[in-house]
Amino acid sequence: MACCLSEEAKEARRINDEIERQLRRDKRDARRELKLLLLGTGESGKSTFIKQMRIIHGTGYSDEDKRGFTKLVYQNIYTAMQSMIRAAETLMVPYKYEHNKVNEIYSSKPFHIPQLKCRQL
Fold first, then answer.
1. Residue 90 annotated as binding?
2. Can you give the pTM of this predicted structure?
3. Domain assignment of residue 111, given as a range
4. How many domains does the chain divide into?
5. Phi, psi torsion values for 41, nearest 5 degrees
């Protein structure tokens, strides 16, 4: 029956067959795919959960992602330290504990915590 078709009709049929084949392949792949809906308020850990699943069950992170996270971790540490220092000053909590052996070493030398500038990523 295909021998009586024009070249345009043969081309249209070939394209249609290719589309049908791709649709069947996609349908077969979709059956294997597991979908999960994560619900939660902001900052409840949805993204963290996805990242952990990616690390444990997926391909992990690329080197570029790791470099980006390294910068973010250092910035978070720096910001947390600044917050702790400001809170200690506000609450008048001393920086040193009098009974600490390490304190004896540093109390004899002047100690200054420089104010560093941090740029936003």
1. no
2. 0.41
3. 61-121
4. 1
5. -70, 170
